[in-house]
Amino acid sequence: MSTITSQLGTVSFQGHYLTVITSPTGEHLVAMKPISEAIGLDWKSQYNRIQRHPVLSTCMVVMTMQMPGDDQHRELVCLPLDYLNGWLFGVDASRVKPEIRERLVQYQRECFAALAAYWQQGEAVNPRRRKAAAQKALPNGLTGDQQGAIKALVAARIETLPEAERGKAATRCWSALRSKFGCSFKKISPEQFTEAVGLVARVELEGEFLGKPTGFGGVIGRPLSPIERWMVSLDPQGQERYTPVPVDACVMTHRELIKAMVTPGALDVSTEEMFEFSMAALANLKARSDTQSKPARSRAITRPSASA
User: What's this model's pTM, rounded to 2 decimal places?
Assistant: First the structure.
Protein backbone atom coordinates (compact mmCIF):
# COMPACT_ATOMS: atom_id res chain seq x y z
CA MET A 1 0.00 0.00 0.00
CA SER A 2 1.28 3.50 -0.85
CA THR A 3 0.20 7.13 -0.80
CA ILE A 4 0.68 9.37 -3.88
CA THR A 5 -0.66 12.58 -5.44
CA SER A 6 -1.91 12.56 -9.04
CA GLN A 7 -4.30 14.08 -11.59
CA LEU A 8 -7.92 13.31 -12.53
CA GLY A 9 -9.13 12.19 -15.94
CA THR A 10 -11.71 9.93 -17.61
CA VAL A 11 -11.48 6.66 -19.53
CA SER A 12 -14.00 4.35 -21.17
CA PHE A 13 -14.77 1.12 -19.30
CA GLN A 14 -17.45 -1.40 -20.38
CA GLY A 15 -19.24 1.28 -22.41
CA HIS A 16 -19.23 3.87 -19.59
CA TYR A 17 -16.88 6.69 -18.65
CA LEU A 18 -15.10 6.41 -15.30
CA THR A 19 -13.26 9.07 -13.38
CA VAL A 20 -9.69 7.86 -12.99
CA ILE A 21 -6.59 9.14 -11.30
CA THR A 22 -3.45 9.18 -13.42
CA SER A 23 -0.33 8.56 -11.36
CA PRO A 24 3.00 10.31 -12.04
CA THR A 25 4.10 7.15 -13.86
CA GLY A 26 1.04 7.23 -16.17
CA GLU A 27 -0.87 4.39 -14.47
CA HIS A 28 -4.68 4.74 -14.38
CA LEU A 29 -6.17 4.20 -10.89
CA VAL A 30 -9.84 3.94 -9.91
CA ALA A 31 -11.35 4.98 -6.58
CA MET A 32 -13.20 1.87 -5.43
CA LYS A 33 -15.64 3.27 -2.85
CA PRO A 34 -17.68 5.37 -5.36
CA ILE A 35 -17.92 2.40 -7.75
CA SER A 36 -18.94 -0.01 -4.99
CA GLU A 37 -21.64 2.30 -3.66
CA ALA A 38 -22.88 3.13 -7.16
CA ILE A 39 -23.78 -0.50 -7.85
CA GLY A 40 -25.25 -1.09 -4.37
CA LEU A 41 -22.37 -2.81 -2.56
CA ASP A 42 -21.35 -2.23 1.04
CA TRP A 43 -17.99 -0.47 0.83
CA LYS A 44 -16.64 -1.79 4.15
CA SER A 45 -17.21 -5.37 2.99
CA GLN A 46 -15.55 -4.68 -0.35
CA TYR A 47 -12.60 -2.98 1.33
CA ASN A 48 -12.08 -6.05 3.54
CA ARG A 49 -12.40 -8.28 0.47
CA ILE A 50 -9.68 -6.31 -1.36
CA GLN A 51 -7.38 -6.49 1.66
CA ARG A 52 -7.85 -10.28 1.89
CA HIS A 53 -7.27 -10.86 -1.82
CA PRO A 54 -3.71 -12.12 -2.54
CA VAL A 55 -3.50 -10.11 -5.78
CA LEU A 56 -5.68 -7.02 -5.24
CA SER A 57 -4.11 -6.29 -1.84
CA THR A 58 -0.64 -5.99 -3.39
CA CYS A 59 -1.67 -3.29 -5.89
CA MET A 60 -4.03 -1.26 -3.67
CA VAL A 61 -3.13 2.43 -3.49
CA VAL A 62 -4.29 5.03 -0.95
CA MET A 63 -4.31 8.73 -1.82
CA THR A 64 -5.93 11.98 -0.75
CA MET A 65 -7.86 13.81 -3.48
CA GLN A 66 -11.01 15.81 -4.13
CA MET A 67 -13.28 13.89 -6.50
CA PRO A 68 -15.78 15.56 -8.88
CA GLY A 69 -18.97 16.51 -7.03
CA ASP A 70 -17.25 16.48 -3.62
CA ASP A 71 -16.50 19.64 -1.61
CA GLN A 72 -13.35 18.45 0.13
CA HIS A 73 -10.29 16.24 -0.13
CA ARG A 74 -10.75 12.67 1.09
CA GLU A 75 -8.62 9.59 1.50
CA LEU A 76 -9.33 7.19 -1.38
CA VAL A 77 -8.61 3.50 -1.76
CA CYS A 78 -7.81 2.79 -5.42
CA LEU A 79 -7.03 -0.12 -7.70
CA PRO A 80 -5.31 0.00 -11.10
CA LEU A 81 -7.86 0.18 -13.92
CA ASP A 82 -6.40 -3.03 -15.38
CA TYR A 83 -7.55 -4.91 -12.26
CA LEU A 84 -11.13 -3.57 -12.27
CA ASN A 85 -12.39 -6.35 -14.55
CA GLY A 86 -11.08 -8.99 -12.15
CA TRP A 87 -12.65 -7.28 -9.13
CA LEU A 88 -16.00 -6.99 -10.90
CA PHE A 89 -15.82 -10.63 -12.00
CA GLY A 90 -15.70 -11.68 -8.33
CA VAL A 91 -18.62 -9.53 -7.15
CA ASP A 92 -21.62 -11.43 -5.73
CA ALA A 93 -24.42 -10.50 -8.16
CA SER A 94 -27.09 -11.07 -5.50
CA ARG A 95 -25.71 -8.12 -3.52
CA VAL A 96 -25.88 -5.44 -6.24
CA LYS A 97 -28.81 -3.22 -7.20
CA PRO A 98 -31.61 -5.13 -8.98
CA GLU A 99 -31.49 -2.83 -12.02
CA ILE A 100 -27.87 -3.79 -12.80
CA ARG A 101 -27.95 -7.42 -11.65
CA GLU A 102 -28.81 -8.90 -15.04
CA ARG A 103 -26.08 -6.88 -16.76
CA LEU A 104 -23.51 -7.98 -14.18
CA VAL A 105 -24.45 -11.65 -14.57
CA GLN A 106 -24.19 -11.31 -18.35
CA TYR A 107 -20.75 -9.70 -17.93
CA GLN A 108 -19.55 -12.47 -15.62
CA ARG A 109 -20.85 -15.13 -18.00
CA GLU A 110 -18.83 -13.49 -20.76
CA CYS A 111 -15.77 -13.52 -18.49
CA PHE A 112 -16.04 -17.30 -18.19
CA ALA A 113 -16.19 -17.62 -21.97
CA ALA A 114 -13.22 -15.28 -22.39
CA LEU A 115 -11.14 -17.22 -19.88
CA ALA A 116 -11.98 -20.49 -21.59
CA ALA A 117 -10.99 -19.05 -24.97
CA TYR A 118 -7.71 -17.70 -23.57
CA TRP A 119 -6.62 -20.98 -21.98
CA GLN A 120 -8.03 -23.40 -24.56
CA GLN A 121 -7.47 -21.47 -27.81
CA GLY A 122 -4.60 -19.16 -26.89
CA GLU A 123 -6.55 -15.91 -27.31
CA ALA A 124 -9.86 -14.24 -26.47
CA VAL A 125 -11.50 -11.68 -28.78
CA ASN A 126 -14.25 -9.28 -27.70
CA PRO A 127 -17.07 -9.93 -30.21
CA ARG A 128 -18.47 -6.39 -29.85
CA ARG A 129 -15.15 -4.82 -30.81
CA ARG A 130 -14.83 -7.18 -33.74
CA LYS A 131 -18.38 -6.34 -34.85
CA ALA A 132 -17.80 -2.60 -34.43
CA ALA A 133 -14.63 -2.80 -36.50
CA ALA A 134 -16.45 -4.77 -39.19
CA GLN A 135 -19.28 -2.23 -39.37
CA LYS A 136 -17.11 0.89 -39.17
CA ALA A 137 -17.53 3.03 -42.24
CA LEU A 138 -17.31 6.64 -43.34
CA PRO A 139 -20.61 8.48 -44.01
CA ASN A 140 -21.85 7.39 -47.45
CA GLY A 141 -18.71 5.26 -47.83
CA LEU A 142 -17.95 1.56 -47.93
CA THR A 143 -18.73 -0.52 -44.86
CA GLY A 144 -15.94 -2.08 -42.87
CA ASP A 145 -16.64 -5.47 -44.47
CA GLN A 146 -16.47 -3.97 -47.96
CA GLN A 147 -13.24 -2.12 -47.15
CA GLY A 148 -11.79 -5.36 -45.81
CA ALA A 149 -12.80 -7.24 -48.95
CA ILE A 150 -11.00 -4.75 -51.20
CA LYS A 151 -7.90 -4.80 -48.99
CA ALA A 152 -7.91 -8.61 -49.10
CA LEU A 153 -8.25 -8.58 -52.88
CA VAL A 154 -5.31 -6.18 -53.30
CA ALA A 155 -3.24 -8.30 -50.92
CA ALA A 156 -4.16 -11.47 -52.83
CA ARG A 157 -3.20 -9.89 -56.14
CA ILE A 158 0.26 -8.74 -55.06
CA GLU A 159 0.97 -11.89 -53.05
CA THR A 160 1.75 -13.86 -56.22
CA LEU A 161 4.25 -11.26 -57.48
CA PRO A 162 8.01 -11.14 -56.87
CA GLU A 163 8.68 -9.33 -53.61
CA ALA A 164 10.48 -6.46 -55.36
CA GLU A 165 7.35 -5.71 -57.42
CA ARG A 166 4.74 -5.80 -54.66
CA GLY A 167 4.99 -2.20 -53.44
CA LYS A 168 4.64 -0.80 -56.93
CA ALA A 169 1.74 -3.19 -57.68
CA ALA A 170 -0.17 -2.17 -54.55
CA THR A 171 0.23 1.50 -55.45
CA ARG A 172 -1.10 0.75 -58.93
CA CYS A 173 -4.23 -0.91 -57.50
CA TRP A 174 -5.01 1.94 -55.12
CA SER A 175 -4.25 4.56 -57.79
CA ALA A 176 -6.64 2.85 -60.20
CA LEU A 177 -9.44 3.14 -57.64
CA ARG A 178 -8.72 6.81 -56.93
CA SER A 179 -8.52 7.61 -60.64
CA LYS A 180 -11.82 5.87 -61.37
CA PHE A 181 -13.89 7.14 -58.43
CA GLY A 182 -12.10 10.40 -57.60
CA CYS A 183 -11.67 9.61 -53.90
CA SER A 184 -9.97 7.22 -51.48
CA PHE A 185 -11.35 3.70 -51.60
CA LYS A 186 -13.04 4.13 -48.17
CA LYS A 187 -15.24 6.92 -49.56
CA ILE A 188 -16.50 4.93 -52.54
CA SER A 189 -20.29 4.56 -52.52
CA PRO A 190 -21.51 1.14 -51.29
CA GLU A 191 -23.51 0.87 -54.55
CA GLN A 192 -20.20 1.01 -56.46
CA PHE A 193 -18.55 -1.75 -54.42
CA THR A 194 -18.97 -4.43 -57.10
CA GLU A 195 -17.54 -2.09 -59.73
CA ALA A 196 -14.56 -1.31 -57.48
CA VAL A 197 -13.89 -5.01 -56.92
CA GLY A 198 -14.02 -5.66 -60.66
CA LEU A 199 -11.59 -2.82 -61.30
CA VAL A 200 -9.03 -4.12 -58.78
CA ALA A 201 -9.39 -7.63 -60.19
CA ARG A 202 -8.64 -6.43 -63.74
CA VAL A 203 -5.69 -4.09 -63.08
CA GLU A 204 -2.62 -5.32 -64.97
CA LEU A 205 0.41 -5.62 -62.71
CA GLU A 206 4.06 -5.86 -63.68
CA GLY A 207 5.57 -9.23 -62.91
CA GLU A 208 2.22 -11.03 -63.00
CA PHE A 209 1.87 -14.18 -65.07
CA LEU A 210 -0.36 -13.33 -68.04
CA GLY A 211 -0.73 -16.74 -69.61
CA LYS A 212 -4.00 -18.00 -71.02
CA PRO A 213 -6.66 -17.58 -68.28
CA THR A 214 -8.66 -20.63 -67.32
CA GLY A 215 -11.78 -21.22 -65.25
CA PHE A 216 -12.97 -18.35 -63.07
CA GLY A 217 -9.59 -16.69 -63.50
CA GLY A 218 -10.70 -16.02 -67.06
CA VAL A 219 -13.78 -14.18 -65.81
CA ILE A 220 -11.87 -11.76 -63.60
CA GLY A 221 -8.96 -11.49 -66.03
CA ARG A 222 -6.14 -12.99 -63.97
CA PRO A 223 -5.09 -16.20 -62.21
CA LEU A 224 -6.72 -16.85 -58.86
CA SER A 225 -4.58 -16.88 -55.73
CA PRO A 226 -4.83 -19.96 -53.48
CA ILE A 227 -6.79 -18.12 -50.76
CA GLU A 228 -9.44 -16.41 -52.88
CA ARG A 229 -13.15 -17.21 -52.66
CA TRP A 230 -15.82 -15.56 -54.82
CA MET A 231 -19.61 -15.56 -54.94
CA VAL A 232 -21.26 -15.23 -58.36
CA SER A 233 -24.82 -13.83 -58.43
CA LEU A 234 -27.28 -12.11 -60.75
CA ASP A 235 -28.61 -8.62 -60.17
CA PRO A 236 -32.26 -7.66 -60.98
CA GLN A 237 -31.20 -6.86 -64.56
CA GLY A 238 -29.72 -10.34 -65.02
CA GLN A 239 -26.11 -9.14 -64.98
CA GLU A 240 -23.50 -11.29 -63.23
CA ARG A 241 -21.96 -9.87 -60.07
CA TYR A 242 -18.76 -11.15 -58.50
CA THR A 243 -18.29 -10.69 -54.76
CA PRO A 244 -15.17 -11.78 -52.85
CA VAL A 245 -16.02 -14.00 -49.88
CA PRO A 246 -13.81 -13.94 -46.75
CA VAL A 247 -11.93 -17.16 -46.11
CA ASP A 248 -13.69 -17.67 -42.76
CA ALA A 249 -17.21 -16.93 -44.09
CA CYS A 250 -19.94 -19.59 -44.11
CA VAL A 251 -22.30 -19.57 -47.09
CA MET A 252 -25.45 -21.58 -46.39
CA THR A 253 -29.24 -21.43 -46.28
CA HIS A 254 -31.17 -20.64 -43.09
CA ARG A 255 -32.05 -24.32 -42.69
CA GLU A 256 -28.45 -25.37 -43.18
CA LEU A 257 -27.35 -22.85 -40.56
CA ILE A 258 -29.88 -24.16 -38.01
CA LYS A 259 -28.77 -27.74 -38.65
CA ALA A 260 -25.10 -26.79 -38.36
CA MET A 261 -25.70 -24.97 -35.05
CA VAL A 262 -26.99 -28.15 -33.39
CA THR A 263 -24.42 -30.48 -34.97
CA PRO A 264 -21.18 -30.68 -32.93
CA GLY A 265 -18.18 -29.74 -35.03
CA ALA A 266 -20.21 -28.64 -38.05
CA LEU A 267 -19.20 -24.97 -37.60
CA ASP A 268 -15.66 -23.82 -36.93
CA VAL A 269 -16.62 -21.25 -34.27
CA SER A 270 -15.43 -20.63 -30.74
CA THR A 271 -17.49 -21.20 -27.60
CA GLU A 272 -17.67 -17.42 -27.19
CA GLU A 273 -19.05 -16.95 -30.71
CA MET A 274 -21.60 -19.74 -30.19
CA PHE A 275 -22.74 -18.15 -26.94
CA GLU A 276 -22.98 -14.74 -28.62
CA PHE A 277 -25.13 -16.23 -31.38
CA SER A 278 -27.41 -17.96 -28.86
CA MET A 279 -27.94 -14.78 -26.84
CA ALA A 280 -28.71 -12.81 -30.00
CA ALA A 281 -31.23 -15.48 -31.06
CA LEU A 282 -32.96 -15.36 -27.67
CA ALA A 283 -33.14 -11.56 -27.81
CA ASN A 284 -34.63 -11.78 -31.32
CA LEU A 285 -37.27 -14.30 -30.18
CA LYS A 286 -38.21 -12.12 -27.21
CA ALA A 287 -38.56 -9.04 -29.41
CA ARG A 288 -40.78 -10.98 -31.83
CA SER A 289 -42.90 -12.33 -28.98
CA ASP A 290 -43.34 -8.85 -27.50
CA THR A 291 -44.34 -7.45 -30.90
CA GLN A 292 -46.87 -10.22 -31.57
CA SER A 293 -48.47 -9.87 -28.14
CA LYS A 294 -49.07 -6.11 -28.33
CA PRO A 295 -52.20 -6.20 -30.57
CA ALA A 296 -53.84 -8.77 -28.30
CA ARG A 297 -53.29 -6.64 -25.19
CA SER A 298 -54.56 -3.59 -27.05
CA ARG A 299 -57.82 -5.33 -28.01
CA ALA A 300 -58.31 -6.52 -24.45
CA ILE A 301 -58.05 -2.96 -23.15
CA THR A 302 -60.31 -1.29 -25.73
CA ARG A 303 -63.06 -3.97 -26.03
CA PRO A 304 -66.32 -2.60 -24.48
CA SER A 305 -67.78 -4.50 -21.52
CA ALA A 306 -70.84 -6.69 -21.81
CA SER A 307 -72.91 -4.36 -19.60
CA ALA A 308 -72.24 -1.42 -21.90
Answer: 0.40
